[in-house]
Amino acid sequence: MNSSASQGKDVGLTQEMFEQLLAWLDEDRELAGKKYEEIRFQLINLFIGRGCRISEELADKTIDRVARKVKDIAGTYVGDPALYFYGVAKIIHLEYVRRKLIFPQDSLSRPEKDREQRYECLHLCIEKLSSVNRELILTYYGEGQTNEEQRRKLASRMRLELNALWVRVHRIREKLRRCVIECLKNREAQ
């Protein structure tokens, strides 16, 4: 097995899961390995293109998540398996953006308990927002709004200029950031 293939296993996959993933990609083991490498390469480029500093880690996390689902979907999934990876990558990117939204320095290597506390605080702080602001921030980031056309549509729906939408989202994001920091401080003090 080549080094990039073994990296896919290093993120918590069992040998059996990895074998099932390769079998799903192609019956021919050599072709499956090539497809795996191509998909991983494309995922890394996708994350780089979206400005992710930990693109290889995110690509491996995507592969890990897909590999865990292969047993359930292999028999019924129709189409190019690469497309399934890209769908999962969109979710992984959304999770990354959400972490980055509040904690720009955050990475996937932080302890799980620390991450859980942050998510709990983020959830509490989102719930404290007005319903309009909560809907706006969740729509803006929750739909993976990564291109200008999607943001223009959101601004139009809200009857705002694009710049006004950005300012509004920025203010909500800052309010959330301060709230989460305060929440975490309160938890540490207890």
Structure characterization notes:
The protein has helices spanning 3-9, 15-25, 29-49, 55-73, 81-102, 112-128, 131-142, 148-157, 162-189. The longest helix has 28 residues, at 162-189. The chain is globular. With 190 residues, it is an all-alpha fold. The chain contains nine helices and no strands.
Helix/strand layout:
Elements: H1 3-9, H2 15-25, H3 29-49, H4 55-73, H5 81-102, H6 112-128, H7 131-142, H8 148-157, H9 162-189
Strand content: under 5%
Structural class: mainly alpha
The main sheet comes to:
none
Termini separation (Å)?
A: 50 Å
Task: Give, in order, the helices and strands.
Answer: HHHHHHHHH
Helix % is over 70%
Radius of gyration: 19 Å
Uncertain segments of ≥5 residues (pLDDT<50)? 1-11
The pLDDT mean sits at 80
Number of helices: 9
Shape, principal axes of CA atoms:
globular
Q: Give the number of DSSP strands.
A: 0
